[in-house]
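Subject: APOBEC3

B.,
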Amino acid sequence: MCYLLERQKGATFMLLDAGVFQNQALEHAERRFLSSPDILQLLDGGRHYRVTWYLSWSPCSQCARAVAGFLAQHGNVSLRIFVARLYNHEDPENRQGLRTLNSTGTPIRVMTNREFALCWERFVRHQGAAFEPWAGLRENADLLLGQLEDILGV
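Prediction pasted inline below.
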């Protein structure tokens, strides 16, 4: 997971932190982010924060429930999720998890060339190399978008 953590300042958002969380053993990156002391100490209850996640896979049902619970406890935090792939999207529990997250007001989007390029620029040590979209990126994003819209009932 690549993430951006921003604090609202007037009508704009100011970047506070950006980084990467990886899955470890049996703990997914989403849960590691939610329980990170470094992240939690940045979230002052008196201010509004926007978090953006760029995920390789959409959250599993258990992570989706954990995220929804976190957002319910932290009303001053909004979350946007961009996914490169849909995790086990035929599983009814995972489908419900995505619907639950969406119902919290969390937009879930499929990563497009724009998001991949942003991640390339911000999180990859590319040594000045330009981002090169791979063949079929747009078609794959369109396919995943249709599947996600079907899951979310959009």
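Helices lie at 29-34, 37-42, 61-73, 92-103, 113-123, 137-152.

T.
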